[in-house]
Amino acid sequence: MASFEEAETEETVTCLHMMFYHPFQQEKQVFRHLNFYKREQLRADEVAKFGRDGNICHYILVDARVSRIQFSLQLFRKLSGSELCFEIKNTSKRTKLTVNNLELGYLNKIDLPLKCMVGFGDYQILMHVQEGESVDFFETFLELSQVSLLQEQYLPSLQPISEHGISPLFYSQAINPVEKPVEMDENEL
After folding, report:
1. Spatial distance between the Cα atoms of 128 and 115, rounded to a whole number of angstroms
2. Which of 8, 27, 146, 189 is 20 to 30 A from 159 in CA distance terms?
3. Residue 180 above 50 pLDDT?
4. What is the Cα–Cα distance from 9 to 83, expressed in whole angstroms?
């Protein structure tokens, strides 16, 4: 039996949490081939592909308007250190992919922010990277949202909180939820 000092330490695994939303999920079941609420382990060198082609994509979206391969995610290690990151690439010729409102055209790719909103067509995916150490594997964890991720504003607001403890963005939505937030000075509250 190995002593405590000689036992191998367990590496943490990088996990990409993804929350999916589509306004017609109830009627069309576009996410019916996704495994929600289960951690899935993938090899670190594997490219996670999302699209409608079940022969190519690991994450299948059942929708004729989705490209055969809509986008891909790949784990990589930055050249200057041991930090593991993801890159996201738009592989659709028909549809632009947005990452935090930055539009990516066909074959454009960027480093995936630690927390971001990814969108194309009516699809909304909130992604959050939980950092880990393993260079052999990464995990994904998928969740399904019943409400629009944009309406719920899961991303932190960049609006300052007023002295009254109410965010101007929240205050403007509570008064007029249909209109978009209006920029205002904190003295206007």
Report:
1. 4
2. 146
3. no
4. 19
Residue identified by tokens 């399904």 is 144
Confidence (pLDDT) at 79: 85
- Return d(Cα 17, Cα 40) in angstroms, integer: 11
Contact predicate 112/56, CB 8 Å: no
Q: What is the pTM of this model?
A: 0.75
Quickly list H helices, 85-164. Answer: 149-152
Q: Which residue matches tokens 């971001």?
A: 116
- Confidence at residue 168, expressed as pLDDT on a 0 to 100 scale: 41
Nearest to 53 by CA among 42, 40, 66: 66
Mean pLDDT of 166-179: 38
